[in-house]
Specification:
The chain is built from one helix and 19 strands. With 319 residues, it is mainly β.
């Protein structure tokens, strides 16, 4: 893994870190909103391009990695099998047009699909189904249906059909019905699905503490940024600082070395500026995390969906 350089905090942040890490802080934080699960099995959000519901919020589905494409998936070459590369990034603000793209490459069979237009995003719990049209090896006239479930385990399915005849060209689950849930495990990556919440607000879970926020100076040219946590290595607590250029939808997670989610540090809509939260080494189940190497992953995007950002920082929890 590429070595990550350390981030040096200013003297003001050193004072803040020392004060904040000295003990628990009263934050008035609330539990993370239930944006991943629908208790009764109904969709938490169902969005079709061009439709509108009350409120203004963002639903998104994105991820990348590899799946094992089985024999029989490619109709023209049923014996072809091997790794296929997956990348997709879609978002939709309520009432606005769905935006995003996907690329699916099955190199063994010389298959390269790229989306052009997208017209459907449906999110049910932790799963998303996305539909649209695109090109296959540079030729237009194809439709795709992508299904993805946020893990662990992260699961994926890709289905490509001829737009004119509806004949199946590729389906990673040829023996399953068109509406069957994805079953192919996504490796070397991750999937993130977030349902829109009309009352979306910045949330800090009970396992983390919101340390501070610095409002942007007038005329400041801010960009997305995730600083190295401090201290690192750490025991008892570590400060994680991030910057947003405009009001953005944010998810800040702690992952283990296998890419599995350990703790949620922040989620929801956040105002522009520099913010900081403290992870005290506890999991989402409010249990102490084991000592070892972890990663803090920041995924964020402007509320309009036109810019997205992802970054990782390595951190070490010691006994």
């Amino acid at each position: 893994m590429r070595k990550l350089s350390a981030y040096t905090l200013s003297s003001a942040w050193l004072v803040l870190a020392a004060t904040a890490l000295a003990g628990p802080t009263t934050t008035g934080g609330q539990p993370i909103p239930k944006i991943y699960t629908a208790e009764d099995g109904t969709p938490t959000q169902s969005l079709v391009s061009g439709t509108s519901t009350s409120g203004a919020s963002t639903a998104s589905a994105h991820g990348h990695g590899k799946i094992d494409s089985p024999a029989g998936a490619l109709v023209a070459n049923p014996l072809a099998a091997g790794k296929a590369d997956v990348h997709f990034d879609f978002s939709q603000v309520t009432g606005a047009k769905l935006s995003g793209s996907t690329r699916f490459r099955f190199k063994t069979a010389h298959l390269d699909f790229r989306s052009g237009s997208c017209d459907r995003l449906v999110i049910v719990g932790k799963s998303a189904t996305i539909g649209g049209t695109g090109t296959l090896n540079g030729a237009a006239g194809y439709r795709f249906s992508l299904s993805a479930t946020s893990g662990p385990p992260h699961l994926f399915r890709m289905r490509i059909t001829n737009q004119a005849t509806s004949a199946v060209v590729y389906d990673s689950q040829r023996n399953d019905s068109e509406t069957a849930a994805p079953t192919a495990a996504l490796g070397n990556g991750w999937i993130d699905v977030t349902a829109a919440s009309p009352a979306a607000r910045a949330q800090v879970p009970a396992g983390a503490t919101r340390a501070s926020a610095i409002e942007p100076a007038a005329g400041a040219d801010l960009g997305f940024a995730l600083a190295q946590n401090f201290p690192n290595p750490f025991n008892g607590g570590t400060l994680v600082r991030f910057t947003l250029p405009e009001r953005s939808h944010l998810k800040l997670l702690v992952l283990d070395v296998a890419g599995r989610q350990v703790a949620t540090l922040a989620v929801g809509a956040w105002d522009p500026g520099t913010h900081a939260v403290i992870w005290r080494g506890r999991t989402d189940a409010d249990e102490p995390a084991r000592s070892g190497v972890y990663f803090v992953r920041m995924t964020a995007g402007l509320m309009g969906g036109e810019q997205r950002f992802m970054a990782l920082r390595k951190m070490v929890l010691v006994d």
